[in-house]
Amino acid sequence: MATLKVPSSVPPAEEDSEQLRKAFAGNKLMENNEALIIQILAHRNAAQLKLIRETYAATYGEDLLKDLDSELWSDFQRALLLWTLDPTERDAYLVNEANKQLTSSNWVIMEIACTRSSNDLFLVRKEYHARYKRSLEEDVAYHTTGDYRKLLVPLVSAFRYEGDEVNMMLAKSEAKILHEKICDKAYNHEEVIRILTTRSKAQINATLNQYNSQFGNAINKDLKSDPKDDYLSLLRATIKCLTRPEKYFEKTLRLAINKLGKDEWALTRVVVTQAEVNMQCIKEEYHKRNSVPLERAIAGDTSGDYENLLLALIGHEDA
Amino acid sequence: MAVSDELGALTRAFSGLGVDEKALISILGKWHPEQRQTYRKGTRDFFIEDERQFERWDDYHVIQLQHEFLRFKHAIVLWTMHPWERDARLLKEALHKGPQHKVLVEVACTRLSDELLGARKAYHSLFDQSVEEDVAFGIRGPERKLLVALVSSYRYEGTKVNEGIAKSEAKFLSSAIKGAAGNKNLLENEEVVRIVATRSKPHLTLVYNHYKEITGNYLDEDLEGELYLQETVQCLCKPQEYFSKVLDASMRPDVDELKKEAVTRIIVTRADVDMKLLKQEYNHKYGVSLPNKIEDVANGNYRDFLLTLVARGD
């Protein structure tokens, strides 16, 4: 469920647009205008944001996000920018950015590929064509190697069936296959990749339940043989994203807030991409796991406008 | 018509693709029992002498005849189908009927990106599974990775290409092919698969051209014998040539049923796409016009239907 809070009566896009123009005046974000920007943008949904952007462009002849590709050194600016992008554009932007980076980029690609719906992922691929004049999969393939490529290219190319039907016999036999390969430490085996990158989420869920029943351990426990192995971590995260995304996002947030992960933009990314999707669930998960509400954790880790924007997006009152 | 002429006409009515319904009606329809018996006794191909003294239809030929009678129906149904459903069913058949994995390459590589997406959506509806999970599960050989990648592709379709990268990828392919030197294991080469499975068609055309400049040879010819890679490159870079080849091979006498079905498949799926170019290519390659060839090898309603579709390119 979304945490985004939109006022019950939303001003017309022209009014929002005018206010934002004033706040952005002079191409620099003035100190006291950032609160106004948050007040507007952090309380509009994707459709409303789109309308505001269109109105702004029609009225002032420039894109609200004209600073899109410039150096964004402020967490606040980056979060604002990502938030104001249309979700499909945002995901395409994140994947493209990930392709250019060296570290933690694989995680972003995996996260987007596994937690979006089949249709949404395809919309991202379409948007990627329009924006970057190449296909998403060709860029991911070109910028990855070895086991990462073996896993990520099929993940971003998948168009998983989304029904609930499950074939129990198949689940049993594929659980066996997974167990076999894991025992052989063949974590990059074709069959492991095949099962995780092509089966529907419902089918994978059933397979992993079978794995647990037949072999006594949850699959991710068996995949913990080498805590330093980055590929194995990615594999475990893939499985989590496909079956329990809210748990994956909770952990990602936890590591980011405690500065334990290598993923410096994880906090921004998770809050912005999930605010309208699943943040309520993630908040509950976070509270359960950490005994402290997410709002408090974010407030403790961030400050200023960045903090205010994040808190607004996760539904914190009077932000 | 003299009897021998009638027999000749009847034989022709039953041979080739489809049946000549009019001839069958006008000849068989008026034959008395004795004439039909003469026909049975004289046509050893279709009828065998049963031990209890009667001429019996040969089972194998009845099945053959069934295919020929149904060829028109199959063409109509395929033609009327939504292209998404049609391609989804073709993909499914390619996996299970035969199997004919090359048809997977054909469908995946000759459709536009959004058409392939549509086929994948229809596949969900029709079969409650994704095409990639079926392909991955149903294929065990070294071609699995290539085929899964091909059906999963969503190639960029704009004209923007990167000359530098195309050159280096052409160079890479040239050394990879030399290195493989007839070992037929290019399918295991991840980079080769990456290039053919993810790059856009305009980009690959550039690669194809650079390859010719570098090596003096055509990329698809150098891939002769490489399972599926040759078809992949042909479908992506020279589809009309590919289709002409397959059509011609399917129209030869005495090919099996699966091969014959290619005629319907290709004509129906290309009629609205590039039939004009296909006809030109066919003529250029084989020295005979496609309509004339079809007149030769096909009969009746089936023939007339094919000719109507083929004429759409004019």
TrEMBL record, chain A:
PROSITE patterns: ANNEXIN_2. Ca(2+) 1 binds at F24, G26, E71, K259, G261, A299, D301, T302, E307. Keywords: Annexin, Calcium, Calcium/phospholipid-binding, Metal-binding, Repeat. This is Annexin D2-like. It comes from the Eukaryota. GO terms for molecular function: calcium ion binding; calcium-dependent phospholipid binding; phosphatidylserine binding. GO terms for cellular component: cytoplasm; plasma membrane. The keyword Metal-binding applies. Pfam families: Annexin.
UniProtKB/TrEMBL annotation, chain B:
PROSITE patterns: ANNEXIN_2. GO terms for biological process: response to cold; response to heat; response to salt stress; response to water deprivation. GO terms for cellular component: cytoplasm; plasma membrane. InterPro entries: Annexin, Annexin_repeat, Annexin_sf. Keywords: Annexin, Calcium, Calcium/phospholipid-binding, Metal-binding, Repeat. It comes from the Eukaryota. This is Annexin D4. It comes from Olea europaea subsp. europaea. The lineage of its organism: Eukaryota, Viridiplantae, Streptophyta, Embryophyta, Tracheophyta.
